[in-house]
Amino acid sequence: MCCNSRIWHSHHCILPPYVSRQIAQNGSPQQRAKALRTLSIDNTLRAIRLSSSGAPQAAKRLIPGPMVVESQKLRTIYNVNNSEALPGMEARSEGKDDTGDAAVDEAYVGLGATYDLYWEVFGRNSIDGNGMPLNGHVHYGSGYDNAFWDGERMVFGDGDGDLFNRFTISVDVIGHELAHGVTEHEGPLAYFLQAGALNESLSDCFGSLVKQRLLNQTVDQADWLIGAGLLTDKVQGKALRSMKDPGTAFDDPVLGKDPQPANMKDFVNTWEDNGGVHINSGIPNKAFCIAATNLKGYAWEKAGLIWLETLRDSRLKANASFLSFARLTVTAAVRLYGSGDEEQIVRDAWGQVGIKVSKERAGAPVWTPQVQKPATQPVQRKH
Amino acid sequence: MRIEFKREGGLAFFPGLARPRTVDLAALPPATAEALKREVREARFFEQPTTVGGSPTMGADRTRYTVTIEDDGGRRHSVQLVEPVKEPHLRSLLELLQKAEREHRAP
């Protein structure tokens, strides 16, 4: 009903509240439980946001868009034609057939798979939650070795063919770039030091979920690699990163050795790479992988939801540390599933990467001042 | 003329690619050296601000290049180029440096 014809996904949707309420009233017992859980999360976050400082702005963000239940997927792929002259020529728009250009078609499919994950599983309508069109720009530059998010669009190079293949080849990389857009719109995470590594990790987590869902893989079937297939045969390596075993993705004479730590005890202090955002992300990546694996089933069902709820939590700060993020994941697990196995699994996952979330401190630090603020500094509102 | 070139950022961190490189134009094939000199001149490199391109607050995974050039007269200037770099001569200078790097890498 709410998510196209894939009936088995319909009950995961966090859709406009009235849809969830409808399910809560009329669905099967299982659907009802999930829908009620959804409604409760939704309201909790709305309440938190409305009671935090800057309430008018927060409230504005919460005004639901049009009450749509149809997908508003709107992809456009541009061919930059091996130049840097963005945006380039339109090569494929929504609903059009394959073009035969692998980069164009992979970008189209990858953006679609990413949109579908956010919409069908999490009820989020595109990057900004409000149907933002998705623009991908392929064949950027000449032998260009990168893919990036520039704040508005995703840009993909063809790779030099020596070290790297085309950057659209791994669907998780496409999901990774789009997830940066979600993080930028949703959360305040700075792209620097631990907060930046969390930002990077969230992109890896959701990028991997895009791939796992596209391939219909359970947590045990997933390879938990980011960028598998991106390195050429000449490179001694299997991917850019391994979420399961950080630090093992490549070891090559030209690229060097994968520098990712898997545990806080090996945390890398550096000013390079925006303070190690692509290096230390190995730690939260592994925590997510462990949590998802122990939560079993499909990783997007519980682990993905918990992590997305954490990103949406207004207590998440621009300079969030791994520990503060970890605490918020535990509180999100409790909010979603109550005190029980899920909470314990998430807490244990962080424990296994050297981040201890004590039961008492979970979620505590920034909660009190934020809630009190509107009471002490009332905000003038127009009614 | 000597050019120091350092690449940072991008979708992943590769220690091997992040090492700073120094190119001495005297050691390059004359055609490559001449092309580099021309782009340095046409890009007005020594008049560029310390950071060019990109957006200061938004975006992720963008590559950042630090290019430091010392000319034969002893002038020295550093510019950080953040993707996407739109100015054509700076862009071309970057490509020439990357090409020189690749050629150096090839056995």
Can you lay out the helices and strands and say which pair or pack?
The complex is a heterodimer of chains A (383) and B (107).
Chain A: H1 7-10, H2 17-26, H3 29-51, H4 55-62, E1 75-83, E2 89-93, H5 102-121, E3 134-140, E4 147-149, E5 154-157, H6 171-186, H7 193-214, E6 225-226, E7 241-242, E8 251-252, E9 256-257, H8 272-276, H9 282-295, H10 300-312, H11 322-337, H12 341-352, H13 367-376
Parallel strand pairs in A: 1-3, 3-5
Antiparallel strand pairs in A: 1-2, 4-5, 6-7, 8-9
Chain B: E1 2-9, H1 15-18, E2 21-24, H2 30-42, E3 51-52, E4 63-70, E5 76-82, H3 88-105
Parallel strand pairs in B: 3-5
Antiparallel strand pairs in B: 1-2, 1-4, 4-5
The strand count of chain A comes to 9
Q: What's the number of helices of chain B?
A: 3
Quaternary state reads: heterodimer
Which sequence of SSEs, written as H and E, runs from N to C of chain A? HHHHEEHEEEHHEEEEHHHHHH
- Rg of chain A, please? 21 Å
Shape of chain A: globular
Please identify which CATH superfamily of the largest domain in chain A we are dealing with.
Answer: Neutral Protease Domain 2
Show unreliable segments of chain B.
none
Q: What pair of chains forms the biggest interface? A: A-B, 45 and 28 residues
CATH T-level fold name of the largest domain in chain A: Neutral Protease, domain 2
Question: How are strands sequenced across the largest beta sheet of chain A?
Answer: 2-1-3-5-4
Instruction: Please give the domain count of chain B.
Output: 1
Read across the widest sheet of chain B, the strand sequence of neighbours is 2-1-4-5-3
Question: What is the N-to-C order of secondary-structure elements of chain B (H for helix, E for strand)?
Answer: EHEHEEEH
Mean pLDDT of chain A: 83
Beta-strand portion of chain A reads 5-15%
